[in-house]
Write a structure and sequence with these properties.
The structure holds two protein chains of two kinds.
Chain A lengths: L2 H8 L3 H27 L16 H6 L2 H34 L5 H13 L2 H14 L8 H25 L3 H9 L4 H29 L3 H6 L7 H10 L5 H23 L2 H6 L6
Helix pairs in contact in A: 2-12, 4-7, 4-9, 5-7, 6-7, 7-9, 8-9
Chain B lengths: L3 E10 L9 E9 L3 E5 L6 H9 L6 E6 L2 E2 L10 E4 L11 H11 L4 H14 L15 H13 L5 E5 L7 H18 L2 E6 L2 H7 L2 E6 L2 E6 L1 H6 L4 H6 L4 E7 L8 E6 L4 E5 L9 E6 L5 E3 L9 E13 L3 E7 L5 E7 L13 E7 L4 E4 L2
Parallel strand pairs in B: 3-8, 3-9, 6-7, 7-8
Antiparallel strand pairs in B: 1-2, 1-4, 4-5, 9-10, 11-12, 11-14, 12-13, 14-20, 15-19, 16-17, 16-19, 17-18
Classes of the chains: A mainly alpha, B alpha+beta.
Chain lengths: 278, 368
């Protein structure tokens, strides 16, 4: 019997170690979600393990307008902010990747700025800006929308820029030599090839907006309250497993949404960099 | 008289921030239906020239005429040119059929007509039946054929090929060469072929423009380029060439010939197209396969040159042998001899020998 076979039998292969590590990482990431899920259907009012009994009471509470309104508000404003950020981000990304102009590097840094800047600082700044410009009336919906666009713009620019730089220059040139005007090149070649980058940019922007609490902490108003702020407010007055049910909803809704979007394109490929259909 | 399909007039390209022009005043006329290669090492300006013809770069000065029309002001999509890239540049999100039909769709050709012409183009490149595939499902050679079909289907006035064979392996490259020659014969489209491969250029071209440092060193048929190179660069870039440092010795020689004194002392009588002043530094150039190698001194003859040398190395290469020799002056030389039955195989490394060649096979090249 060869040494190689012996070694394979007595020593865990690198692949085996990798699998174990991956499993641990996933457990680590998913355990909190698992416990939240458990808490949302347990009878006790405190999170306990093992869970006591089974009830849908918390879910019933979570599906009342007191909760569904802020959830719907979050979904709507996040979608709007992401779309705006995506349009602006695409324009910026095209300018930053396809053209060289004085100040380009500064602009690249500035686009990344909001990534580095704590959102808390940003939202204080936004609040003051609205006040100083005499736009205090727009704090609330408009303020949060602006804040979300600002915090999600860097993600859109990044994703779209990666998408653009993945399109070989010669592919665009080939199209133009074949008679496509610059506009047709964008429409028939660049946009379709950019689809996954756009979807990924939208997804990141959406998550960024949907899970934000710092921007809304300063800029939300009673009528315009996202679910994150509603949860924070609720926690001020104590704890109830309703929170667990609400959390599960805020987790599941975006996942369903992205599963649907994913059917139209493979942004998963885009993020992981692999080719599902290879 | 043929029509001129492509004319380049004093074409110059200076890239921003560089002092040396990438293309430094090119003048060429390419006739309709001709297959012309732009041959040169990387950085010689051949691809820059092609990109200017395609319209991707604007020339710094000079003009480009397609069928007599100046096109500098036209963007690439209005030039009606076919272009095949080294990396194929197929549209990855489209099928083979959609790729080939793209140019027709841009020209708003009717559906039925489009299907017919796409079919014809795929047939021309022998890819019928592949219409539904995506580029990712094709081999390198097949992608190149799709790229060719896509460029040809619009019936371009000029077809530009930018190193289209460089990404293919040797076997495939040789079969694609023949394929491109066949397609050119069938379509008779004026073709500009950019390559750094002298073999490709010699085999495929009607004429070759040998480029170096932004200039066309010589523009001629493959046999002119190979047999009558005008500069040392052309002589050495295409095939190999023995170059012996000499100086012109007197001007008293019959027309069409000149006497040259080699550094190792021999007086060589070689053919000369132009008259040169005595003492002019020159190279006497002769191809290795036009040079003979002998142990005994040859009979002195005005029709022959003869130079002493020593064998450094003998390489056996199957169909021929290569003798690497050194002259008393220290210059190196090469002689290739076909492996035929009646040759002297007794020569060995270190032997003193004579290199001989016909005066008419020798050329004089300027030495600076």
């Amino acid at each position: 019997m060869s040494g190689g076979v012996n070694a394979a039998r007595f020593r865990p292969s690198a692949w085996g170690v990798l699998k174990a590590v991956v499993a641990i990482i996933y457990l680590f990431m998913l355990f909190p979600v698992f416990f939240t899920g458990l808490a949302s259907i347990s009878e006790g009012t405190r999170a306990a393990f093992p869970p006591v009994g089974f009830t849908l009471a918390w879910w019933r509470e979570a599906l009342e307008p007191g909760w569904t309104d802020p959830i719907l508000f979050s979904l709507r404003i996040s979608a709007e902010a992401s779309l705006i950020a995506l349009v602006l981000g695409t324009v910026l990304a095209i300018a930053l990747t396809r053209y060289t102009f004085p100040g380009r590097n500064v602009l690249v840094m500035l686009t990344l700025g909001p990534l580095i800047l704590p959102t808390l600082v940003l939202s204080v700044g936004l609040l003051q800006m609205f006040a100083m410009l005499g736009l205090s009336d727009y704090v609330g919906y408009g303020g949060q929308l602006t804040g979300y666009v600002v915090i999600s713009l860097p993600f859109c620019v990044r994703m779209v820029a990666i998408g653009i730089s993945n399109i070989p220059r010669n592919v665009e040139r080939a199209a133009s030599v074949l008679g496509a005007s610059p506009w047709m090149v964008q429409r028939k070649i660049v946009l379709p090839l950019l689809k996954n980058g756009l979807l990924a940019g939208f997804m990141f922007a959406f998550i960024q907006s949907f899970t934000d609490s710092s921007v809304s902490l300063f800029l939300a108003r009673p009528g315009d309250m996202p679910v994150t702020i509603r949860i924070l407010g609720f926690l001020d007055t104590g704890f109830s497993p309703t929170i667990a049910a609400v959390s599960m909803i805020t987790l599941i809704l975006p996942m369903v949404m992205f599963a649907i979007i994913d059917r139209f394109g493979q942004f998963g490929d885009f993020i992981h960099g692999d080719k599902r259909h290879a | 008289m043929h029509n001129v399909a492509v004319a380049l007039r004093n074409l110059v390209k200076n890239y921003d921030g560089t002092s040396v022009p990438a293309v430094n005043g090119i003048n060429l006329e390419i006739e309709e239906g001709e297959f012309v290669s732009f041959l040169g090492p990387s950085g010689c300006g051949k691809t820059t020239t092609l990109n200017m013809v395609a319209g991707f770069f604007a020339p710094t000065s000079g003009s480009i005429l397609l069928n007599g029309q100046s096109v500098e002001a036209l963007p690439p999509h209005r030039r009606g040119i076919g272009l095949v890239f080294q990396d194929y540049a197929l549209f990855p999100h489209m099928t083979v059929e959609e790729n080939v039909g793209f140019g027709l769709a841009m020209r708003k050709v009717a559906k039925a007509e489009m299907a017919r012409r796409v079919g014809e183009a795929l047939e021309l490149v022998r890819l019928n039946g592949y219409g539904d595939r995506k580029p990712s499902q094709l081999s390198g050679g097949q992608m190149q054929r799709v790229a060719l079909a896509r460029a040809l289907v619009i019936r371009p006035s000029v077809l530009l090929l930018d190193e289209p064979l460089s990404n293919l392996d040797l076997k495939l490259r040789e079969s694609m060469r023949v394929e491109i020659m066949r397609i050119h014969r069938q379509t008779k489209i004026t073709t500009l072929f950019v390559t750094h491969d002298q073999g490709e250029a010699l085999v495929m071209s009607d004429r070759i423009a040998v480029m170096n440092a932004g200039n066309v060193e010589q523009f001629g048929t493959p046999s002119e380029i190979y047999e009558r190179p005008r500069t040392r660069f052309v002589a050495e870039f295409i095939g190999s060439m023995n170059l012996f440092r000499c100086a012109v010795e007197g001007t008293s020689c019959e027309a069409g010939y000149a006497l040259a004194r080699a550094e190792s002392g021999e007086l060589l009588r070689v053919q000369s197209a132009q008259e040169r002043p005595s003492g002019d530094p020159i190279y006497v150039a002769v191809r290795p396969e036009r040079t003979a190698i002998t142990r005994i001194p040859p009979q002195p003859s005005p029709g022959c040159i003869s130079i002493r040398a020593t064998i450094d190395e003998i390489l056996y290469l199957g169909n021929h042998r290569e003798y690497q020799v050194r002259l008393p002056s220290g210059e190196a030389g090469v002689v290739t001899v076909s492996n035929v039955a009646d040759q002297d195989r007794s020569l060995a490394t270190g032997d003193s020998v004579f290199l001989t060649a016909s005066s008419d096979d020798c050329l004089i090249l300027a030495r600076h």
